Amino acid sequence: MWPPTVEQVAEVVRAAGVEARLEELAEGERLPPGPAVRAEAYDCQGRLLVALLPADHDLDPRKLASAAGCVYARPTAAPLFPFTRAAVFMERLMLGEETVWIRAGSPRHVLGVSPSDLVQITSAQTTGLVAED
Q1: CA–CA distances in Å: residue 45 to residues 12, 30, 102, 106, 119
Q2: DSSP string, 53-73
Q3: 38 pairs with which residues across the strands?
Q4: Contact, 94 vs 52, CB < 8 A?
């Protein structure tokens, strides 16, 4: 049995009917077994936005604001996966990965899922979000 917050993620995945792997990281381990997804939350003039992007890339908040149709996006506290009360935007670069890994209910638990299934679970829109070098 998973901890309650992790079990909530498992329930969402089961309800979506997608193939996914839920894993607990070893003690002291911080990195998932594959490409990591970082979730950042922003306030968009009173609307909550969540940006999903590769953990090794920086977000361009102007791109997020533009995709969401707002003038500005201010950082705020991120909600728990699957971000049900937020408009979710996912970096389209991740669509090329077979599996991506995102935190799932705790800092020690990760969910491995295909990017297209992550879009389905989170009702995300895909767009370009990463900052240019």
Answers
A1: 28, 33, 27, 28, 24
A2: EETTS-B-HHHHHHHHT-S--
A3: 53
A4: yes
Under 8 Å between Cβ of 84 and 91: no
DSSP, residue by residue, 15-43 = HHT--EEEEEPPTT--S-SS-EEEEEEEE
Q: Would you say the pTM of this structure is higher than 0.85? A: yes
Q: Are 87 and 52 in contact (CB under 8 A)?
A: no
**133 has a pLDDT exceeding 80:** no
Assigned token pair, 49:
């936005």
Q: Rounded to an integer, what distance in angstroms lies between the CA atom of residue 119 and that of residue 100?
A: 11
For residue 95, give the DSSP letter.
G
